[in-house]
Amino acid sequence: MNTKTISFPSLTLTEKSQALTADINKNATHSVPGIDVNTGHSIAEALQARLQGLNELALILKHAHWNVVGPQFIAVHEMLDSQVDEVRDFVDEIAERMAALGVAPNGLSGNLVANRQTPEYPLGRASAQDHLRIIDKFYSFNIESHRVVLAHYGELDPISEDLLVAQTRALEKLQWFIRAHLDNGNGSI
């Protein structure tokens, strides 16, 4: 297999990647007042996993938004677009909290792929019901994962706890919208 090096002015892609990688993993030598550096960095590392999960959820929601078809198209298409915006806001909140705790958040695509927590989303063009059934599982994963971080770190950092509680509440509401489309009228999905 031949590899081709793409060059930037006076810098090859490989050199550019190495230079960037060095900066990506650089953390601060401090945390927020009242939380020691090791604890702050530990909490931020747990938040990095949540940043990863929510970044992936936002991408999946946008993908489904583009690929949903069928009689429920417009309702689901528009619902998913607003959910993408809300989930992207959650990602931003988590990244900003991580930075305050002294850890550089990593939202790069390579990191997302290398540390993916869930299987690849299996659908392209498909019915609203098919997309919503799978999206429901991704919501469950993220809600459960938020709860795990809350259980382990909530008492150590009430600010991160508050952020995750608010996000969990909102994620449950967004999942409820998904499940309302899946409900058969008898309370089963």
Automatic annotation (TrEMBL):
Keyword Thylakoid: no
CDD domains reported in the protein's UniProt record: DPS
Keyword Zinc applies: no
Keyword entries, A-Z: DNA-binding
InterPro entries xrefs: DPS_DNA-bd, DPS_DNA-bd_CS, Ferritin-like, Ferritin-like_SF, Ferritin_DPS_dom
GO MF annotations in UniProt: DNA binding
Span of domain Ferritin/DPS: 45-185
Record-stated family: Belongs to the Dps family.
PANTHER family: DNA PROTECTION DURING STARVATION PROTEIN, GENERAL STRESS PROTEIN 20U
The protein's name: Starvation-inducible DNA-binding protein
